[in-house]
Amino acid sequence: MIRRPALMVATAAAAALVLSACGGAEEPAAPAAPAAPAAPAGGPLDLAGVCPATVVLQQDWQPEAEHGAMYALVGPDYTIDADAKSVTGSLVTQGVDTGVDVEVRPGGPNVGFQPVPALMYLDDAITLGAVNTDAAIVAAADQPTVAVASQMTVSPQILMWDPESHPGMTTIRQIAATGAPVVTSGDIIPALLESQGIIQASQSDTSYEGTPARFVSDPVILQQGFATAEPYIYQNEIGEWSRPVGFEPLANYGYSIYPEPLAVRADRLEQLRPCLEKLVPIMQQSQIDYLADPGPTNRLIVELVEAYQTGWTYSEGVADFSAQAQVEQGFVTNDPVSGVFGQFDPARMAEIVSTFGPILQSQGTISSVPDASALYTNDFIDTTIKMG
């Protein structure tokens, strides 16, 4: 599983704060827009009495624009709990108050790097979690989850390189053929590339900690990153670099997972079914609405990063770049097969399991490969919701 490592390493004091289990220092937001009108009673946007009084959404990393659909639901009456690292407000969508609250929790260092399925099984309050498909495969035996909506269609995971060190080269395959080290934070990417004969085992280096130091000092390497972040950050925010990087999405090489689809605990699927029938279409539309007007949500995301004080840094510039890149580079699209936004392709899900299951099994991460059909459902998808 690939987690995004922080670009800035937290100090020991910050790490201690991050790992505190809970806290109570809530910071009320500055007065913002007036309260949204209530959703029509009993209508598709009225969640009162159908969903939990607080819909808890668990992310797998720090607040960032890739999670915009979750944060876009937080109403203007929000409060920030800087100790517990969460934001809570009325769940507002399409201009109306749904009658319930929403709480968005970040992952990564904020939860001791625990996988989202583990968090979901530790805390029944979590309604939906962002669970990468490979993470769902890993958790299937002991902490099974069922994905109910895809909000990012193609993974923005990349390998990046220095164009000056590799003149005229435009693909991962070309640069890997030079013997360049492939620096990642985990072993899934190199295992995938090794299985295709693109790199040799000797090229794999899993020591990446998220800082730019190695890339700046050793620019012949291929390094893990995200098309929605690193190209902007390295050119605009890392003074020691301050120039473009080359990159190619790993999706071109079979990194076909659904990134951060929304999932529910398998044993709570039926219990939450009435809620999911209304909530999933709201989540579908929230992603589309966020990308059409990302500015307000991006400002909230930056505010949260500053309030949480974990050592993670995130600017409004990279947030705006990310939202634009998600659309322009084709990471957020309608499902190519059905044309519906947020729907899973059964053939693709089967391919993901057949690709990553054996890799994870050979690494000893799982003992058996799960059935792809158990990892997702399209039951709650509104097939009329599509990106324009």
Helix and strand arrangement:
Elements: H1 12-18, E1 26-28, E2 54-58, H2 68-71, E3 79-81, E4 86-93, E5 96-105, H3 116-122, E6 126-130, H4 133-139, E7 145-149, E8 157-161, H5 172-176, E9 182-183, H6 188-195, E10 204-205, H7 213-217, E11 222-226, H8 230-236, E12 246-249, E13 262-265, H9 273-292, H10 295-308, H11 316-328, H12 346-362
Helix pairs in contact: 4-12
Can you put this structure into words, describing what you see?
The chain has an eight-stranded mixed β-sheet with strand order 1-3-4-5-2-6-13-7, sandwiched between helices. The protein has a five-stranded mixed β-sheet with strand order 10-9-11-8-12. The radius of gyration is 20 Å and the shape is globular. The model is unreliable at 6-25 (pLDDT under 50). Helix 4 (133-139) crosses helix 12 (346-362). Helix content is 29%, strand content 16%. The relative contact order is 0.18. The protein is an alpha/beta fold. It has two domains: 12-153 and 257-375, D-Maltodextrin-Binding Protein, domain 2, CATH 3.40.190; 157-253, D-Maltodextrin-Binding Protein, domain 2 (3-Layer(aba) Sandwich), CATH 3.40.190. Strand 3 and strand 4 form a beta hairpin. It has helices spanning 12-18, 68-71, 116-122, 133-139, 172-176, 188-195, 213-217, 230-236, 273-292, 295-308, 316-328, 346-362, and strands spanning 26-28, 54-58, 79-81, 86-93, 96-105, 126-130, 145-149, 157-161, 182-183, 204-205, 222-226, 246-249, 262-265. The two termini are 32 Å apart.
